[in-house]
Amino acid sequence: MSSSLTRRSVIALSAVCLSSLMFGLEISSIPAILPTLEQVLHADFKQLQWIMNAYTIAVTTVLMATGTLADRYGRKRSFIIAIVAFGLTSLICGVTEHVLALIAARFLQGMSGGAMLICQIAVLSHEFQGGKERAIAFGWWGIIFGIGLGFGPIIGGAIAAVLNWTWVFLVHVVFAVVALALAASGVRESKDPKATSLDVAGILTLSLSVFCLAFYITQGPDLGFASASGLAILGLSVASLVAFVIAEKVSLRPMFDFSVFRVRDFSGAIIGSAAMNISFWPFMIYLPIWFQAGLGYDSVAAGLALLAYTLPTLVMPPLGERLSLRYRPGLVIPAGLFTIGLGFVLMKFGSATAPASWLTMLPGCLIAGVGLGLTNTPVTNTTTGSVSSDRAGMASGIDMSARMVSLAINIAMMGFILSSGVLASLKSAAPLQLGDAELRQLAERIAAGNTGAVPELSASVVHEALAQGFGWVMLYGGVGVWVLAGISILIFNPRVVRTAKVQGTD
């Protein structure tokens, strides 16, 4: 820590960091125990997907509501309630014996986790308002948050191996008790005196829109993307989004204040929030599958290989924050996003190399991690620092909404692209006597890492299918983040647009 921080502020920062560790672990540690859950709870592929998606989708349903409630009723009070709720729902996850009950408990855990996450940003923004202290606080928050997300697969696998899969959830009961004590003694209460009402219409319409879109992507192959039921779900998502925009426009106290997007730094940073979560974070859920099923590593070796992807996210945030203070976010954030995209392109080439190994993946993994580390904390600090401090809850709500909406949608999108790539490869290389539905189910099982799904398939055919599927996903992540990096540059730096127009008329 730093001598410029008081004892009370160190305790508050510790509470925030511990809760951020809890939140991140519950996203990234679960993929390590999915094979165990498949056996113990007799879960099928779709249910395993929903064990992941239930958490992230639930996070999006409470983000904006929590920001508003924290502004109105107190950020410390809301933070404490969220910690208690997270501990209780983690307990439920750990003691359940049925997969559907676990999915429901994961949804509740995601809601409490999303509330806890928003309160973290709001508390940090109020507790640390000075430039140097703010940089230190957000730097530590970024490191610990990165540890939770980056080391989750290793930690989850180790806990399951040494203790039991239930302790991947139950450990958060212990963490919650410690975080509660720290928050109660270290965090100061703060409110927004202008916060008078809760935007129920906005909360419901945004949540319904995101849920329907993620459901459409996830279940689309089974429902039929162009079927009546599929199109109805997609139409409901679009209609809910339109209703959300209207609700925010007519509300006297909207939870989503569109006027903040007139601040270019805020808008540019929000694009950065979305970009990181269409690429780096959702891919971390699938990358262990490539290391294990595609490259043939065991869980320990795969976890060690994954460190190349995650370690840079832990060491780079302080540098990213210093660069942001020196060169301004409008340069650092787009540069970081471009670096992430470069890493994804290099990973795609590495996965197609014969023979592919952790060494061929290493350059891309490292560069993608460096890009994320340079981008993450500047994005968070810019979104909350570019608006008045009494609207910190609202600003952090929009920031985390962009992150979690993108994450929830792109976990589903990457899963769809992965299974589609595997399916396309199987159709061209393995003329099996299977119907379309059966072949799609086979592709989904292979995409989930079950490479022994059909003994008649040779190892080379399965590997080629996985390589093609993951190649598609890496290309999607790289191109997607580059597109958003370009949009971010144009928003941060309007002179680029004006200069281009002037040159075009010469």
For the biggest sheet, the summary is: none
Q: What is the CATH homology-level superfamily of the largest domain?
A: MFS general substrate transporter like domains
Helix/strand-derived class? mainly alpha
Mean pLDDT: 81
Number of distinct helices:
20
- The top-level CATH class of the largest domain is Mainly Alpha
Low-confidence stretches: 499-503
Share of β-strand residues: under 5%
What is the chain-wise order of helices and strands?
A: HHHHHHHHHHHHHHHHHHHH
Q: Which fold does the CATH topology of the largest domain refer to? A: Growth Hormone, Chain: A
What's the architecture of the largest domain in CATH terms?
Up-down Bundle
How large, in whole angstroms, is the Cα Rg?
Answer: 22 Å
Identify the overall geometry. Answer: globular
How far is the N terminus from the C terminus?
55 Å
The tally of structural domains comes to 3
